[in-house]
């Protein structure tokens, strides 16, 4: 079980604030730390954004994959 330095429950934020909140939370992590992302749909587009904007600086592990709840451990390398 991972210890999470931060958690973002995406449905708690308006749509235009979700990705910036998640990215800012990730950026605040120290190398080796993890954040927990909780969402009501598969955050695959966010993963693509990370692949483009944070290349080789993150890990992505699905902890739960729907159908109603997705939980993702995002780690900072």
Which descriptors would you attach to this protein?
4-stranded mixed β-sheet; 2 helices; 30% helix; 77 residues; 4 strands; alpha+beta
Tell me what you see in this structure:
The chain is α+β, with helices and mostly antiparallel strands and 77 residues long. The protein contains 2 helices and 4 strands, in the order βαβαββ. The chain has helices at 15-27, 44-53; strands spanning 4-9, 34-39, 58-65, 70-76. A 4-stranded mixed sheet has the order 1-2-4-3, covered by helices on one side. Strand 3 and strand 4 form a beta hairpin. It starts with a strand and ends with a strand. The model has no long low-confidence stretch (mean pLDDT 97).
């Amino acid at each position: 079980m991972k210890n999470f330095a931060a958690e973002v429950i995406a449905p708690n934020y308006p749509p235009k604030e979700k990705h910036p909140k998640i990215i800012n939370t990730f950026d605040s992590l120290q190398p080796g730390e993890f954040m927990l992302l909780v969402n009501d749909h598969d955050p695959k587009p966010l993963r693509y954004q990370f692949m483009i904007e944070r290349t080789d600086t993150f890990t992505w592990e699905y902890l739960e994959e729907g159908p109603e709840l997705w939980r993702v451990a995002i780690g900072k390398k």
